[in-house]
Amino acid sequence: MKTKENILSLLSEIPDPEIPVITIVELGVIREITLIDDTSIELKITPTYSGCPAMQQIEDDVRKKLQEHGFSSIKINMVFSPPWTTDWLTEEAKDKLQKYGIAPPEHTTEDKSWLSGKPKSVTCPRCKSKNTKLISQFGSTACKALYQCQECLEPFDYFKCI
Amino acid sequence: MTTQEALFQYTLRIADTNLILAQRISEWTGHGPFLEEDLALTNIALDITGVAKSLLEYAASIENKGRSADELAYFRNDRQFYNAQITELPNGDYARTIVRQAIVDCFDYYFYTELAKSKDETLMGIAQKSIKEVTYHLRHTSSWVERFGDGTEESHNRAQQALNELWQYTGELFEMTEVDEILIKEGIAVDLNKVKEKWENHMSELLEKSTLAKPENVFMQTGSRKGIHTEHLAFILAEMQALPRMYPDAKW
Asked: In the 8-state DSSP scheme, what is residue A15?
C-alpha cells in the first residue's frame, strides 16, 4: 500500500534540472498529490516562471520516476494559482543554494521594496560579505540575477525574489 | 456570439500579443547593445513566450476542435491573429525597443492586476503568475526609459522620437468589442477603461521623470481586434512559421 508520504519521498529523489543541488520538492513546485490506487495517481505541479524551460523536464522526470515504481496511470496537471513564490523554498534548500554558490533570495515577497527598485543587500555566497553590487537584473536562467562581490571580486548568481 | 466563442477570442488576443512581442524582441538575441541587455531582453522574451504558451493551450481547450497550442501558433494566417499592432512593429534602435517594451509592460501590469480578479480560474491563475514577472520587466524597462530620456541629447532625442512614432499604436490596447462586453457581464474580462486611467497616470509620471514629452492629440491606429494588421505581421509570421509549415510533422 502506497501512501502520499512514500510518493513525496520518491519525488524528493528528483533533482531540479537546472540547479541539481536542490530537489523539485524543496523547490516547491509539487502542489498536490492524489493517490487513486496503487497504479493510478494525479499530481498538480506549478511553474516557477511562465517560460521556465525546465518545467517539461520536471514533468518528464516525475512521470519516469512514478512509472519505475509501478504507476501506469499518471495524470499531471499544471496549475497557476496560487502562483509560485521564492517564499516556498525551504530553509534547507536556501542553505544548499548558498553552498552551491548561488545566493538564495534574501527577502520575503511580503517586502515590496524590490518592486520599486530600491537597492537591497545581497550576501556573497563565498565570503559572506554584504558589500556586493548588481551586475545584471537578468541572469543565466529565468530565476536568477547576476551580482558581483566587492570584497572577494567573485561574480555570483542571485536567486531572484518573486 | 456565445460566451465560449467570446472567451476563445479573448484568450487568443492576450496570447497573440505576448507571442508576437516575444518573437519580435527575440531578434535582439546575440545583438544586444551589451551582454546584460542581451540577457534582459532574451529573458523577457522567454517569460512572455511562456505566458503565450499557457494561454494558447487554454484557448485550444476552449475551442475544443482538436487544434493544439502549436497549431494555433503556427497554422493561422495574419488575418487570424489578434495581437495589438504595437507588438509587431520592427524593433528599430534600442530606444524604440525599450520605449515600446515599457508601454506594453505598463499596460500588462495594470491589465493583469485586474485580470487576477477574473471569475475564470485559468485566466485568473495565469494573470496572478504573470504579474510577478511583468513587475520585474517593468522595473527594468522603466529604468532604461529614464536613462535614455534624462541621458545625453542623442539618447533623449531617440527616446522622444520613438515615443512620438509609437504613441499612435497605444489606443488599440484599450479598445473593447462585443467580446469584452459579453465577458465583462460574466465577471471574466477586464474593463479596459479602468486600466487606461491607471496606465496613463503611470506613463505620465514615468515620462515626466524621464524629461520626455507625452504626445498629445494623436490619431490612433486601429484594426487588430478584427485581425487587421500593419505590413510587418505577415513577415514576422513567415519567419516564425516557416519550419512547421514546411515540415508539418516535425517534432521538437
From this structure: B
